[in-house]
Amino acid sequence: MVKDLISITQLTKDHINQIIDYAKDYKNRYHNGETKFSDLRGKSVLLPFFESSTRTRTSFELAGKLLSADTINISGSSSSTTKGETLFDTIKTIEAMQSDFIVIRHSMSGAAYQVAKHVKSHVINAGDGQNEHPSQALLDTFTILEHKGSLEGLKIAIIGDILHSRVARSDIKIFKKLGAEVTICGPLTLIPRHVESLNIDYFTTDVEDAIKDKDVVIFLRMQLERQKKVFFSTLNEYSIKYGLNQKRVDMLKDDCLIMHPGPVNRGVEMQSELVYGSRSVILEQVENGLFTRMAIYKFLLNN
Ligand code: CP
């Protein structure tokens, strides 16, 4: 039984396929005119977000509403944590309001896991520090599957601030589980010290080496808010060495997908005109995020 979604580690291949099948079904039905579903009627979804978010918070909220749940946002900056209440007491308070789902984002790695241990509600990790972002990994997988049919044998490169990226950690886990070959690339200062523990196939500091022959390239946001020391000299130099520009797009395979979890630092991870360029599926990732999050609710409820 899977009560909570905390980490990709918890999910088997069958679980992942089940979630993707639900997401596909919701997307098809939505595009055929069905815009209200009753799967979560009578259920409540509370969304305590202690870090900023546009895509994840909005799509989990909208997903809940489309499934007929009652949804309530709790912003960290306006919650009683600013008066000194602990995360534990905040979450017990939320649970006492009979929440069926708690969708939590927090700057502390392990926050969602700690919450899930203490409540009966289904807990969904919407990003915990630099640890994991499982719903992002599921929506990335759904987007790749729509274009490529399978991840078995696909060559995927993840480029940028791997050290601080919860997206990279969840993406690597799900891509490897589904049979892809994963390369990571970035400046040495932004690669975790024990890189071999990430279970990747190849690591390079040369972005042009990383992107050649790939089926998918994922550029990561430079997470300046998590960088407590200097990891590179200037953003401009980072962009020249690691950013996506037209010359590098021309080196890609013709059918290579360009992805980014967002938000993009335009001119840093990629040149501005490439963000919504012809190979970019960034907005498809956003749309698929909605259906994937509907699928996650259904999966947890049906388990
Ligand atoms: N990809 C992602 O987590 O975006 P938000 O921070 O806008 O939710």
Description:
- It is a single chain.
- This protein is α/β, with parallel strands linked by helices and 303 residues long.
- The protein has helices at residues 13-31, 55-66, 87-96, 111-118, 134-148, 166-177, 207-211, 235-242, 246-251, 282-302; strands spanning 44-49, 70-75, 101-106, 122-128, 155-159, 181-185, 202-204, 216-219, 257-259.
- It is built from ten helices and nine strands.
- Helix 5 (134-148) crosses helix 10.
- The mean pLDDT is 95.
- Phosphoric acid mono(formamide)ester binds at residues 53-56, 127, 136, 261-263.
- Phosphoric acid mono(formamide)ester (CP) binds next to helix 2.
Name a few traits of the molecule.
binds phosphoric acid mono(formamide)ester, Rossmann fold, 10 helices, 38% helix, alpha/beta, four-stranded parallel sheet, 2 domains, globular, 303 residues
